[in-house]
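Is this the right way to post structure tokens for a design question? Let me know if I should format differently. Anyway, here goes:
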């Protein structure tokens, strides 16, 4: 009888344990999943509740964890509610388009309110503009335009351009420079100094011998050589108008310790006015080429397209200009035909531009200034069918807005999230970093 009672007790205990296990739910590993996918996995097992956390460290709608101290593989009663923590756009973010999840201001890159100010001030940089990214080996070099040692009213020592390195791969907390490219006295080094003539729109304003400054428009590494492009500005007009006499290429090695103009690589206004502001870029479908987009001086021109084989980079006559209908014509003949019948892949007006291929979109993405807004357009092919303009930021978001620059090395999540350095004219003359997340 005693044995029978013991056996019966063991059977009851087994059923009780099984019954208890049946009422438990093992929390699956849904961290990092989209909340909608996670809900499908959990559906019918337990009730769920969502707690949103504002953050720019993760994409919106990603599962970050659980409330109540729970973790993956923990057991919980099925009659309880699983509280899931999910990322949402950071506080203060905004969007102007249903194709943009959010835009978020990460703060100043330059100026007194930036985390770089002490380093910049030590090297004679108080205020500046642009911030064009150029990837050189494992670092990004930002090209800044007219730079002054003072922080207000463009005061102090004037450099036509300066360069600053960034080696961190995390842009989500802003940009912290690793070094400024300096001369042997420790001050910011211009790769090509302008003549700094007085800016006047008079009878001499069309003379190519006049030069106010040399402003960078882009750069690229080809093998062990680095090439920077600059525009020679002969006068600053008003409301986005300025005159460019030519665009010239300067060469260095990856140390960026010395620079020399490349003989023959100069696009003069006389040859064709549309090549005042040239931006070079890589085409992943044609790695043997360097491609270029360009606009005239100012912010009112359309976008031309041209290219060159990397092996012929320093040969001016090898550059091929796109004239429409799959027609590429090289050298002086190509420039002459373009001048007589310009073919633009994007119509005017366009200002300060940059471009990259975005793997997330599986499309090209070009960003530029138009009518006081920084916009982007996308296309599957460089030469046709660009989308309608998509507004990224406006002058209402950043007073005095006039430029925004992107790079395929300033992205996360394959391009779903990208970073853009924007310039402001008022009330400060500095740059800021914004984070953009696509839908």
């Amino acid at each position: 009888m005693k044995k029978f009672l013991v056996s019966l007790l063991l059977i009851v205990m087994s059923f009780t344990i099984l019954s208890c296990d049946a009422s438990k739910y093992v929390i699956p590993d849904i961290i990092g999943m989209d909340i909608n996918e996670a809900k499908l996995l959990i559906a019918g097992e337990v009730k769920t509740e969502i707690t949103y956390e504002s953050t720019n460290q993760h994409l919106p709608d990603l599962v970050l964890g659980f409330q109540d101290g729970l973790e993956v593989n923990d057991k919980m009663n099925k009659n309880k509610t699983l509280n899931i923590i999910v990322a949402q756009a950071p506080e203060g973010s905004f969007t102007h388009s249903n194709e943009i999840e959010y835009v978020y201001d990460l703060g100043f890159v330059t100026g007194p309110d930036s985390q770089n100010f002490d380093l910049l001030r030590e090297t004679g940089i108080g205020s500046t503009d642009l911030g064009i990214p150029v990837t050189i080996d494992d670092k990004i070099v930002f090209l800044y335009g007219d730079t002054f040692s003072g922080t207000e009213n463009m005061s102090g020592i004037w450099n036509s351009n300066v360069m600053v390195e960034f080696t961190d791969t995390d842009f989500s907390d802003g940009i912290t420079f690793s070094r400024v490219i300096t001369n042997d006295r420790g001050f910011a080094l211009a790769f090509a100094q302008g003549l700094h003539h007085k800016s006047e729109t008079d009878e001499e304003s069309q003379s190519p011998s006049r030069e106010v400054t040399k402003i960078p428009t882009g750069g690229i590494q080809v093998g062990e050589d680095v090439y920077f492009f600059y525009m020679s500005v002969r006068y600053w007009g008003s409301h986005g108008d300025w005159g460019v006499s030519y665009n010239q290429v300067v060469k260095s090695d990856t140390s960026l310790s010395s620079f020399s103009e490349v003989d023959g690589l100069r696009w003069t206004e006389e040859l064709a006015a549309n090549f005042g502001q040239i931006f070079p870029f890589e085409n992943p479908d044609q790695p043997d080429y360097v491609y270029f987009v360009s606009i005239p001086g100012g912010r009112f021109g359309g976008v031309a397209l041209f290219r060159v084989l990397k092996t012929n980079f320093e040969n001016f006559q090898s550059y091929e200009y796109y004239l429409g209908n799959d027609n590429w014509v090289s050298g002086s003949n190509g420039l002459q035909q373009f001048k007589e019948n310009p073919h633009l892949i994007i119509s005017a007006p366009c200002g300060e531009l940059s471009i990259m291929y975005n793997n997330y979109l599986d499309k090209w993405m070009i960003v530029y200034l138009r009518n006081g807004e920084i916009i982007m357009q996308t296309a599957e092919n460089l030469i046709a069918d660009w989308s309608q303009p998509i507004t990224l930021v406006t002058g209402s978001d950043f007073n005095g807005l006039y430029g925004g620059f992107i790079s395929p090395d300033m992205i996360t999540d394959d391009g779903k999230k990208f970073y853009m350095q924007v310039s402001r004219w008022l009330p400060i003359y500095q740059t800021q970093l914004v984070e953009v997340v696509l839908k």
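Format looks fine. Someone answered above. Worth noting: The radius of gyration is 28 Å. The chain has two domains: 23-88, 100-438.
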